[in-house]
């Protein structure tokens, strides 16, 4: 499972690096079975969860906001449609006044 999580994380991002470090630490604690410290494992697990929640919140904000190219395209499209409607209304008024 740890491998699947690592494959989805970007090793260049600080938040992802912190999560990967936490996973490595938890694995190290769990491999040392004879002297496995459950309190240390739980603390490490809580740290990973906290870091993951921060990462997920920032990703959710990015997704909600939209990718930059999508946002720019959306606003340009809205402006073009509004300008087209304004020109259409203007042309209709000019045609009716002649």
Provide an overview of this structure.
By secondary structure, this protein is mostly helical. It has two domains: 1-65; 66-98. It has four helices and no strands. α2 (14-31) packs antiparallel against α3. It is rod-shaped, with a radius of gyration of 26 Å.
How much is the radius of gyration in Å? 26 Å
| Overall pLDDT | 88
Proportion of residues in helical segments: over 70%
Structural domain count: 2
The topology string of helices and strands comes to HHHH
Please name the defining characteristics of this protein.
single chain; mainly alpha; 4 helices; 98 residues; 2 domains
Could you outline the blueprint of secondary structure elements for this entry?
Elements: H1 2-8, H2 14-31, H3 38-65, H4 68-97
In short:
This protein is mainly alpha-helical. The protein folds into two domains: 1-65; 66-98. The chain is 85% helix and 0% strand.
């Amino acid at each position: 499972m740890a491998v699947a999580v690592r494959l989805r994380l970007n090793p260049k991002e600080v938040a992802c690096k912190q999560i990967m470090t936490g996973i490595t630490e938890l694995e190290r604690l769990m491999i040392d079975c004879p002297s496995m410290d459950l309190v240390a494992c739980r603390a490490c697990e809580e740290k990973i969860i906290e870091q993951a929640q921060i990462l997920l919140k920032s990703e959710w904000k990015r997704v909600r906001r939209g990718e930059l190219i999508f946002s720019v395209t959306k606003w340009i499209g809205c402006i073009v449609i509004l300008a087209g409607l304004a020109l259409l209304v203007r042309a209709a008024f000019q045609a009716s006044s002649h």
